[in-house]
Write a structure and sequence with these properties.
The chain is of the alpha/beta class. Helix content is 53%, strand content 14%. The C terminus is likely disordered.
Protein backbone atom coordinates (compact mmCIF):
# COMPACT_ATOMS: atom_id res chain seq x y z
CA UNK A 1 0.00 0.00 0.00
CA UNK A 2 1.43 3.39 -1.02
CA UNK A 3 1.80 5.97 1.74
CA UNK A 4 0.46 9.48 1.19
CA UNK A 5 1.34 12.33 3.52
CA UNK A 6 -1.27 14.91 4.48
CA UNK A 7 -0.65 18.44 5.77
CA UNK A 8 -3.86 18.57 7.84
CA UNK A 9 -7.10 16.63 8.27
CA UNK A 10 -8.57 15.81 4.86
CA UNK A 11 -11.28 13.49 3.49
CA UNK A 12 -9.24 10.43 4.38
CA UNK A 13 -11.99 8.13 3.09
CA UNK A 14 -11.19 9.12 -0.50
CA UNK A 15 -7.49 8.44 -0.04
CA UNK A 16 -8.18 5.05 1.49
CA UNK A 17 -10.61 4.22 -1.31
CA UNK A 18 -7.75 4.84 -3.73
CA UNK A 19 -5.56 2.35 -1.87
CA UNK A 20 -3.38 4.79 0.07
CA UNK A 21 -2.19 4.49 3.64
CA UNK A 22 -2.49 8.01 5.03
CA UNK A 23 0.06 9.61 7.34
CA UNK A 24 -0.53 12.98 9.00
CA UNK A 25 2.83 14.71 8.63
CA UNK A 26 2.10 16.89 11.66
CA UNK A 27 1.80 13.80 13.87
CA UNK A 28 5.04 12.35 12.51
CA UNK A 29 6.82 15.64 13.18
CA UNK A 30 5.59 16.29 16.71
CA UNK A 31 6.03 12.62 17.66
CA UNK A 32 9.66 12.59 16.52
CA UNK A 33 12.56 12.73 18.95
CA UNK A 34 14.42 14.82 16.35
CA UNK A 35 12.04 17.76 15.99
CA UNK A 36 14.79 20.39 16.21
CA UNK A 37 16.84 18.68 13.51
CA UNK A 38 13.80 18.44 11.20
CA UNK A 39 13.20 22.18 11.61
CA UNK A 40 16.90 22.84 10.97
CA UNK A 41 16.67 20.88 7.72
CA UNK A 42 14.02 23.32 6.53
CA UNK A 43 15.95 26.39 7.63
CA UNK A 44 19.11 25.16 5.91
CA UNK A 45 17.01 24.71 2.77
CA UNK A 46 16.02 28.38 2.97
CA UNK A 47 12.82 28.49 5.01
CA UNK A 48 12.91 31.74 7.01
CA UNK A 49 13.10 31.74 10.79
CA UNK A 50 9.80 33.63 10.97
CA UNK A 51 7.97 30.83 9.17
CA UNK A 52 5.62 28.57 11.13
CA UNK A 53 7.40 25.70 12.88
CA UNK A 54 4.75 23.23 11.72
CA UNK A 55 5.43 24.07 8.04
CA UNK A 56 9.17 23.64 8.54
CA UNK A 57 8.60 20.42 10.44
CA UNK A 58 6.43 19.00 7.67
CA UNK A 59 9.13 19.83 5.12
CA UNK A 60 11.77 18.16 7.30
CA UNK A 61 9.63 15.02 7.65
CA UNK A 62 9.12 14.78 3.88
CA UNK A 63 12.84 15.17 3.20
CA UNK A 64 14.09 12.94 6.00
CA UNK A 65 11.62 10.07 5.73
CA UNK A 66 10.90 10.19 2.01
CA UNK A 67 7.15 10.41 2.45
CA UNK A 68 5.34 11.01 -0.80
CA UNK A 69 3.12 11.73 -2.54
CA UNK A 70 1.85 14.57 -0.35
CA UNK A 71 -1.69 15.92 -0.33
CA UNK A 72 -1.44 19.63 0.44
CA UNK A 73 -4.50 21.54 1.62
CA UNK A 74 -4.37 24.86 -0.21
CA UNK A 75 -7.56 26.40 1.17
CA UNK A 76 -9.06 25.97 4.61
CA UNK A 77 -5.84 25.54 6.58
CA UNK A 78 -2.55 27.43 6.28
CA UNK A 79 -1.68 29.89 3.52
CA UNK A 80 2.00 28.84 3.80
CA UNK A 81 1.06 25.38 2.55
CA UNK A 82 0.77 26.75 -0.99
CA UNK A 83 4.46 27.66 -1.11
CA UNK A 84 5.41 24.51 0.79
CA UNK A 85 3.75 22.57 -2.02
CA UNK A 86 5.83 24.43 -4.61
CA UNK A 87 9.06 23.72 -2.72
CA UNK A 88 8.18 20.03 -2.41
CA UNK A 89 7.63 19.98 -6.18
CA UNK A 90 11.06 21.56 -6.65
CA UNK A 91 12.57 18.78 -4.54
CA UNK A 92 11.00 16.15 -6.79
CA UNK A 93 8.07 15.01 -4.64
CA UNK A 94 4.67 14.23 -6.09
CA UNK A 95 2.12 16.63 -4.63
CA UNK A 96 -1.64 16.83 -4.90
CA UNK A 97 -3.65 19.94 -3.99
CA UNK A 98 -6.95 19.82 -2.15
CA UNK A 99 -9.03 22.90 -1.41
CA UNK A 100 -11.89 23.02 1.05
CA UNK A 101 -14.74 25.21 -0.26
CA UNK A 102 -14.77 28.74 1.15
CA UNK A 103 -18.03 27.94 2.93
CA UNK A 104 -19.57 24.73 4.31
CA UNK A 105 -21.86 24.11 1.34
CA UNK A 106 -22.77 20.46 0.64
CA UNK A 107 -22.92 20.90 -3.14
CA UNK A 108 -19.52 22.63 -3.24
CA UNK A 109 -18.01 19.97 -1.01
CA UNK A 110 -19.48 17.22 -3.15
CA UNK A 111 -17.76 18.69 -6.22
CA UNK A 112 -14.46 19.00 -4.34
CA UNK A 113 -14.69 15.35 -3.28
CA UNK A 114 -15.54 14.23 -6.81
CA UNK A 115 -12.53 16.12 -8.16
CA UNK A 116 -10.24 14.51 -5.58
CA UNK A 117 -11.65 11.03 -6.24
CA UNK A 118 -11.17 11.52 -9.99
CA UNK A 119 -7.53 12.55 -9.54
CA UNK A 120 -6.87 9.49 -7.41
CA UNK A 121 -8.71 7.08 -9.70
CA UNK A 122 -11.40 6.03 -7.25
CA UNK A 123 -15.09 6.66 -6.61
CA UNK A 124 -17.11 8.32 -3.88
CA UNK A 125 -19.19 5.15 -3.63
CA UNK A 126 -16.17 3.29 -2.28
CA UNK A 127 -15.25 6.29 -0.09
CA UNK A 128 -18.76 6.27 1.43
CA UNK A 129 -18.36 2.59 2.26
CA UNK A 130 -15.13 3.37 4.09
CA UNK A 131 -16.86 6.19 5.95
CA UNK A 132 -19.07 3.53 7.49
CA UNK A 133 -16.04 1.43 8.44
CA UNK A 134 -14.31 4.41 10.09
CA UNK A 135 -17.44 5.35 12.00
CA UNK A 136 -16.71 2.95 14.84
CA UNK A 137 -13.18 4.30 15.35
CA UNK A 138 -14.53 7.85 15.52
CA UNK A 139 -17.30 6.86 17.93
CA UNK A 140 -14.72 5.29 20.24
CA UNK A 141 -12.66 8.50 20.14
CA UNK A 142 -15.72 10.52 21.05
CA UNK A 143 -16.46 8.08 23.86
CA UNK A 144 -12.99 8.84 25.23
CA UNK A 145 -13.96 12.51 25.01
CA UNK A 146 -17.15 11.89 27.00
CA UNK A 147 -15.25 10.04 29.72
CA UNK A 148 -12.97 13.09 29.93
CA UNK A 149 -15.55 15.80 30.62
CA UNK A 150 -18.56 13.83 31.87
CA UNK A 151 -16.98 11.10 34.03
CA UNK A 152 -13.62 12.69 34.80
CA UNK A 153 -11.57 9.50 34.32
CA UNK A 154 -9.52 10.43 31.21
CA UNK A 155 -6.75 13.01 31.37
CA UNK A 156 -6.47 16.03 29.09
CA UNK A 157 -3.35 14.57 27.48
CA UNK A 158 -5.01 11.20 26.83
CA UNK A 159 -7.94 13.08 25.34
CA UNK A 160 -5.62 15.13 23.12
CA UNK A 161 -3.67 12.11 21.88
CA UNK A 162 -6.79 10.03 21.21
CA UNK A 163 -8.51 12.78 19.25
CA UNK A 164 -5.55 14.23 17.37
CA UNK A 165 -4.70 10.76 16.05
CA UNK A 166 -8.14 10.62 14.41
CA UNK A 167 -6.68 12.71 11.58
CA UNK A 168 -4.98 9.59 10.16
CA UNK A 169 -5.86 6.83 12.69
CA UNK A 170 -2.15 6.23 13.11
CA UNK A 171 -2.09 4.66 9.66
CA UNK A 172 -4.20 1.68 10.78
CA UNK A 173 -7.75 2.33 11.96
CA UNK A 174 -8.21 -1.19 13.34
CA UNK A 175 -5.14 -0.86 15.56
CA UNK A 176 -6.38 2.60 16.54
CA UNK A 177 -9.71 1.05 17.60
CA UNK A 178 -7.91 -1.60 19.64
CA UNK A 179 -5.88 1.01 21.52
CA UNK A 180 -8.95 3.12 22.24
CA UNK A 181 -10.81 0.07 23.53
CA UNK A 182 -7.91 -0.63 25.92
CA UNK A 183 -7.93 2.98 27.12
CA UNK A 184 -11.69 2.96 27.63
CA UNK A 185 -11.59 -0.29 29.59
CA UNK A 186 -8.78 1.01 31.80
CA UNK A 187 -10.39 4.42 32.30
CA UNK A 188 -13.66 2.92 33.51
CA UNK A 189 -11.81 1.36 36.47
CA UNK A 190 -10.26 4.65 37.61
CA UNK A 191 -11.26 7.03 40.35
CA UNK A 192 -12.41 10.35 38.84
CA UNK A 193 -10.46 13.57 39.22
CA UNK A 194 -11.27 15.51 42.41
CA UNK A 195 -14.31 17.78 42.15
CA UNK A 196 -12.25 20.81 43.12
CA UNK A 197 -10.03 20.57 40.02
CA UNK A 198 -10.70 23.50 37.71
CA UNK A 199 -12.18 22.61 34.33
CA UNK A 200 -10.33 24.19 31.40
CA UNK A 201 -10.92 24.29 27.67
CA UNK A 202 -8.16 24.25 25.08
CA UNK A 203 -9.00 25.95 21.78
CA UNK A 204 -6.85 26.50 18.71
CA UNK A 205 -4.47 24.29 16.77
CA UNK A 206 -2.74 21.44 18.65
CA UNK A 207 0.29 22.66 20.65
CA UNK A 208 3.94 22.00 19.96
CA UNK A 209 4.41 21.07 23.63
CA UNK A 210 1.44 18.80 24.47
CA UNK A 211 3.00 16.62 27.19
CA UNK A 212 4.42 19.59 29.07
CA UNK A 213 1.25 21.67 28.87
CA UNK A 214 -1.33 19.12 29.99
CA UNK A 215 0.82 17.66 32.78
CA UNK A 216 1.69 21.12 34.13
CA UNK A 217 -1.98 22.11 34.18
CA UNK A 218 -2.79 19.01 36.23
CA UNK A 219 0.06 19.66 38.65
CA UNK A 220 -1.73 22.92 39.42
CA UNK A 221 -5.03 21.18 40.28
CA UNK A 222 -6.77 21.84 36.97
CA UNK A 223 -7.51 19.73 33.94
CA UNK A 224 -8.50 20.14 30.29
CA UNK A 225 -12.00 18.83 29.59
CA UNK A 226 -12.33 20.17 26.03
CA UNK A 227 -9.83 20.04 23.16
CA UNK A 228 -11.54 21.97 20.40
CA UNK A 229 -9.76 21.27 17.10
CA UNK A 230 -8.65 17.79 18.17
CA UNK A 231 -12.29 16.85 18.81
CA UNK A 232 -13.20 18.05 15.33
CA UNK A 233 -10.71 15.55 13.87
CA UNK A 234 -13.02 12.80 15.15
CA UNK A 235 -15.94 14.24 13.14
CA UNK A 236 -18.41 14.72 16.03
CA UNK A 237 -21.19 15.66 13.58
CA UNK A 238 -20.88 13.10 10.75
CA UNK A 239 -24.12 13.98 8.99
CA UNK A 240 -25.73 11.72 6.42
CA UNK A 241 -23.07 11.81 3.70
CA UNK A 242 -19.35 12.30 3.16
CA UNK A 243 -19.94 15.82 1.84
CA UNK A 244 -22.09 16.74 4.83
CA UNK A 245 -19.54 15.30 7.24
CA UNK A 246 -16.79 17.56 5.92
CA UNK A 247 -19.13 20.54 5.90
CA UNK A 248 -19.82 19.95 9.59
CA UNK A 249 -16.06 19.80 10.29
CA UNK A 250 -15.61 23.38 11.56
CA UNK A 251 -11.88 24.06 11.23
CA UNK A 252 -11.57 24.94 7.49
CA UNK A 253 -14.36 27.53 7.44
CA UNK A 254 -15.34 30.80 9.08
CA UNK A 255 -14.19 31.27 12.65
CA UNK A 256 -17.77 32.06 13.65
CA UNK A 257 -18.77 28.44 13.01
CA UNK A 258 -16.01 27.42 15.40
CA UNK A 259 -17.23 29.97 17.94
CA UNK A 260 -20.72 28.46 17.89
CA UNK A 261 -19.30 24.99 18.52
CA UNK A 262 -16.92 26.22 21.24
CA UNK A 263 -19.53 28.22 23.18
CA UNK A 264 -21.96 25.28 23.20
CA UNK A 265 -19.24 22.92 24.47
CA UNK A 266 -18.03 25.36 27.14
CA UNK A 267 -21.55 25.47 28.54
CA UNK A 268 -22.12 21.72 28.38
CA UNK A 269 -18.75 20.87 29.94
CA UNK A 270 -19.05 23.50 32.71
CA UNK A 271 -15.72 25.12 31.84
CA UNK A 272 -14.09 27.62 34.22
CA UNK A 273 -11.52 29.13 31.85
CA UNK A 274 -10.13 28.88 28.34
CA UNK A 275 -6.59 28.50 26.99
CA UNK A 276 -6.27 29.70 23.41
CA UNK A 277 -3.10 28.41 21.78
CA UNK A 278 -1.68 30.23 18.76
CA UNK A 279 1.35 29.25 16.71
CA UNK A 280 3.94 31.95 16.17
CA UNK A 281 3.74 33.62 12.73
CA UNK A 282 0.31 32.06 12.02
CA UNK A 283 -2.53 34.19 10.65
CA UNK A 284 -5.00 32.33 12.85
CA UNK A 285 -3.59 34.14 15.87
CA UNK A 286 -5.62 37.18 14.82
CA UNK A 287 -8.72 35.14 15.64
CA UNK A 288 -7.91 35.72 19.32
CA UNK A 289 -9.72 39.05 18.95
CA UNK A 290 -12.93 37.26 17.97
CA UNK A 291 -12.66 34.53 20.58
CA UNK A 292 -12.17 37.05 23.39
CA UNK A 293 -15.18 39.03 22.22
CA UNK A 294 -17.38 35.92 21.94
CA UNK A 295 -16.41 33.85 24.98
CA UNK A 296 -17.84 34.97 28.30
CA UNK A 297 -15.05 33.36 30.34
CA UNK A 298 -11.45 34.26 31.22
CA UNK A 299 -9.12 33.48 28.30
CA UNK A 300 -5.37 32.90 28.45
CA UNK A 301 -3.60 33.17 25.09
CA UNK A 302 -0.40 31.14 24.77
CA UNK A 303 1.96 31.39 21.81
CA UNK A 304 4.27 28.54 20.87
CA UNK A 305 7.13 28.51 18.39
CA UNK A 306 9.92 25.96 18.24
CA UNK A 307 10.91 25.27 21.84
CA UNK A 308 8.68 22.13 22.13
CA UNK A 309 8.35 22.64 25.88
CA UNK A 310 6.83 25.08 28.33
CA UNK A 311 9.54 27.59 29.15
CA UNK A 312 9.64 29.45 32.46
CA UNK A 313 7.64 32.39 31.09
CA UNK A 314 4.81 30.17 29.83
CA UNK A 315 4.73 28.14 33.05
CA UNK A 316 4.40 31.34 35.05
CA UNK A 317 1.52 32.52 32.89
CA UNK A 318 -0.33 29.20 33.12
CA UNK A 319 0.13 29.07 36.90
CA UNK A 320 -1.01 32.69 37.31
CA UNK A 321 -4.08 32.04 35.15
CA UNK A 322 -5.09 29.01 37.22
CA UNK A 323 -4.53 30.93 40.45
CA UNK A 324 -6.76 33.73 39.17
CA UNK A 325 -9.49 31.22 38.28
CA UNK A 326 -9.26 29.69 41.76
CA UNK A 327 -9.65 33.10 43.39
CA UNK A 328 -12.53 33.89 41.06
CA UNK A 329 -14.27 30.62 41.91
CA UNK A 330 -13.76 31.22 45.65
CA UNK A 331 -15.15 34.77 45.37
CA UNK A 332 -18.16 33.56 43.38
CA UNK A 333 -18.81 30.78 45.89
CA UNK A 334 -18.54 33.24 48.77
CA UNK A 335 -20.86 35.74 47.13
CA UNK A 336 -23.42 33.02 46.38
CA UNK A 337 -23.43 31.73 49.95
CA UNK A 338 -23.87 35.28 51.31
CA UNK A 339 -26.49 36.32 48.75
CA UNK A 340 -24.13 38.75 47.01
CA UNK A 341 -23.96 39.53 43.33
CA UNK A 342 -20.66 37.75 42.70
CA UNK A 343 -18.00 38.90 40.27
CA UNK A 344 -18.07 39.99 36.68
CA UNK A 345 -17.74 37.10 34.20
CA UNK A 346 -15.03 39.01 32.30
Amino acid sequence: MTTVGITTTVPIEVLMAAGYQTVDLNNVFIGSTERERLVNLAERAGFPQNCCTWIKGIYGVCMEYGIGPVLCVTSGDCSNTIMLMEVLKLKGLDVLPFAYPDQPDVDLMQRALETLAGRLGTTLTRADELRGELGRARRLALEVDELTWRDGVVSGLENHLSLVTASDFGGDYREYERRLEELLAQARTREPYPDDYLRLAYIGVPPVFPSDLYSYIERNSARVVFNEVQRQFAMPNPGSSLAEQYCNYTYPYSIFGRVDDIVAQLRQRRVDGVIHYVQAFCHRGIGDIIFRDSINLPVLTLEGNNDFMLNHHLRTRVEAFIDMLKRRAAATSGASSSGGLGVSPH
